[in-house]
Amino acid sequence: MPSDARSQANSTPIRAYAVIVVAIVATSSAAILIRLALDENMPPLLIAGARLLIATAALTPIVLRRYRARVRRLSRAELALVALAGLCLAIHFTAWVTSLQYTTVLVSVVIVSTGPIWVAIMEVIFLRIRLSRLVVLGLLVALSGGVIIGIPLDGPLGAAPAIESVSDTLTGGSLALIGALSVSVYMLIGRRLRTTLPVIPYVWLVYGIASICALVVMAVTSTPLAGFRAQGYLVLLAMGLVPQLLGHSSLNYLLEYFHAALVSMFTQLEPIGSAILAVLVFGELPPAKQIAGSIVILIGVLLASRGEIRTADTGASNAD
Fold it and tell me: In Å, how far from its chain's centre is CA 169?
């Protein structure tokens, strides 16, 4: 290997690991910012659409200046996949944001972070990929954690005023699960498209389509866009720039340097960061059963993600 190539190979992981830290910190702030926006009485559709629209607007000058030709060369198949990815991303954010009206930050973020497990299941169904024993074990462990969370609770400790009943907790968990399933489809599409499409035009297209979907739904449902305090709009701006533009785009960037399964596993640190921030900002300490169930789900996701990584490593070794 030439010296310059060796130098680049050695420097890339350092830069990529720095991006991992940025991605985790940025995405961990999402649930907190969403809760702050909800406290300003902003509707979930506005919150979901605004973060996508702000991120799209921020990327537009870069795409028009550097990637216009590449976007024009997109095939019909690529455009169809991008459109589907954008739709799934819009569903993901709408469902997840709404879930935070019903359950704690911890439960919502943990359930929505089960994406890697559902990705593995979808790979079996649609790509005919055989799951390893570790992935199956992780799935069963995570599902058991969901059962623990679903057990009737006495109510959360601390400041979590939106949670009033078991039905609210189940509603919030179900919405978070819809968010997990839709983002899993988004990830599967991203795995395919990111092999040929650079990260900036890819996320710009997906964010743009997702924001259009959100705007259409807001128009149909007559969702109010104005009349809120300035603090609320500042929270929306922060949401679009930090967890969306910086966080989600960083995760897509990491697909160039790590297995997609490993990138998925990085996101499992988000619930921990979000839970810590929730305690610091809201004083929100969930009930013991929710904490236990969330820990079990995290263990299951980590096991499943580790199983995916081993499978990917085995495949790479056989290819070599």
Answer: 20
Task: Give the total residue count for the chain.
Answer: 320
- Select from 103, 159, 106, 24 the least CA-distant residue to 295: 106
Kindly tell me the burial class for residue 295, based on how many C-beta atoms sit within 10 Å of its own C-beta (0-12, 13-18, 19 or more).
middle
Q: Could you tell me which residues come within 8 angstroms of residue 286 by beta carbon, excluding any fewer than 6 positions away? A: 104, 106, 107, 156, 157, 160, 294
Q: Encoding tokens for residue 134?
A: 């570790």
157, β-bridge pairs = 285
Domain hosting 74: range is 3-319
State how many domains the chain has.
Answer: 1
**Which pLDDT band, with edges at 50, 70 and 90, does 46 fall under?**
very high
Contact criterion met (CB below 8 Å) for 93 and 52:
yes
CB atoms within 10 A of CB 190: 26
Nearest-angstrom CA–CA distance, 253 and 183: 17
Q: What is the CA radius of gyration of the chain?
A: 20
Q: What is the pLDDT of residues 133-185, one digit of tens each?
A: 887 787 788 778 776 765 655 544 444 444 456 678 788 889 999 999 998 88
* Residue 271 CB-half CA count within 13 A: 27
* Model confidence, pTM: 0.76
Looking at the predicted structure, is the pLDDT value of residue 64 above 90? yes
- Contact between 283 and 103 (Cβ < 8 Å): no
Q: Which of 220, 17, 193 minimizes the C-alpha distance to 89? A: 193
